[in-house]
C-alpha cells in the first residue's frame, strides 16, 4: 500500500540532514538472508543525499500507511543514443517526436528521464509492503509532473542482463529493450529499456 511520496529535498526541509540520513539508513535489499541489490542499497544509504546536493539526481522515498520507508526511486535526466536500425516505422515516428535522427550513425539522439535507482525496502515487514507496480506508478506519477513542467516523453532504465525477474517486471511495466551497455567497473552487461509516456 502506498502512503506518501517524499523527495530528498522535502525530507531535508522537514527533518534536516541527520534525520534524513537516518531514515535512508533503514533501507535494505536483503531478503531471506540474500543480498538482492547491493548497488541500490549502497546508493540509498551512502550517496542519495550527496547526489541531490550536487544536483545529479533526486531520490524519492515511498512510505507505507504506517509511515515506514517501503521503497525508493531515483530520477535524473540524461542524453542517450537510441539505435534506429531494428525499429519499425511506427516506433521511429514515436521516438522522432522527442529525438533527432543522426543519419550518419543511424542513432536517435535524445534527452530522456532516467530511473537510475529503483527498489523495495525489504527491512519493512508490516503487512503493508509495497508492490513493484505501485512503486513504478509512483515514479511515473512524479515523471508526469516533471513532463508537464519541462516537456519530454522518454524514460529509460538499465537492467542487469542476467536478472530475468527484473527484466520481466520492466516489460510488464511497458518498457522495451533498445540497447545494451557493458560496464567495465563491474564486468557485466546491462540491458537498456525505454518507455514513451
Structural class: alpha+beta
Number of helices: 6
Oligomer: single chain
Flag low-confidence runs.
none
Taken in chain order, the helices and strands follow as: EHEEHHEEHEEHEHEE
Rg calc: 17 Å
Overall 3D shape: globular
Average of the residue pLDDT scores: 93
Number of strands: 10
The helical percent reads 25-40%
Span between termini:
24 Å
Main β-sheet description:
8 strands, mixed
Query: What is the beta-strand fraction?
Result: 35-45%
Q: Can you give a write-up of this model?
A:
The chain has 197 residues and is of the alpha+beta class. The protein contains six helices and ten strands; from the N terminus they run βαββααββαββαβαββ. The chain has helices spanning 8-24, 38-46, 48-53, 89-96, 132-150, 164-172; strands at 5-7, 30-31, 34-35, 58-63, 69-83, 99-102, 107-120, 154-160, 176-183, 188-196. The strands form two sheets. Strands 1, 4, 5, 6, 7, 8, 9 and 10 form an eight-stranded mixed β-sheet that branches. It has a two-stranded antiparallel sheet with strand order 2-3. It is globular and about 50 Å long.
Amino acid at each position: 500500500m502506498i502512503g506518501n511520496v517524499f523527495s530528498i529535498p522535502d525530507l531535508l526541509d522537514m527533518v534536516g540532514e541527520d534525520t534524513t540520513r537516518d531514515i535512508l539508513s533503514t533501507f535494505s535489499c536483503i531478503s531471506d538472508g540474500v543480498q538482492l541489490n547491493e548497488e541500490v542499497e549502497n546508493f540509498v544509504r551512502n550517496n542519495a543525499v550527496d547526489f541531490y546536493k550536487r544536483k545529479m539526481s533526486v531520490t524519492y522515498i515511498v512510505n507505507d500507511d504506517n509511515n515506514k520507508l517501503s521503497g525508493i526511486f531515483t530520477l535524473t535526466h540524461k542524453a542517450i543514443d537510441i539505435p534506429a536500425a531494428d525499429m519499425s516505422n511506427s516506433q521511429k515516428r514515436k521516438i522522432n517526436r522527442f529525438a533527432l535522427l543522426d543519419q550518419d550513425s543511424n542513432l536517435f539522439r535524445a534527452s530522456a528521464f532516467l530511473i537510475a535507482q529503483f527498489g523495495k525496502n525489504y527491512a519493512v515487514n508490516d503487512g503493508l509492503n509495497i508492490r513493484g507496480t505501485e512503486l513504478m506508478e509512483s515514479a511515473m506519477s512524479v515523471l508526469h509532473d516533471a513532463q508537464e513542467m519541462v516537456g519530454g516523453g522518454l524514460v529509460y532504465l538499465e537492467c542487469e542482463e542476467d536478472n530475468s525477474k527484473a527484466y520481466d517486471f520492466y516489460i510488464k511495466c511497458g518498457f522495451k529493450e533498445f540497447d545494451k551497455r557493458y560496464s567495465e567497473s563491474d564486468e557485466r552487461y546491462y540491458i537498456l529499456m525505454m518507455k514513451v509516456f
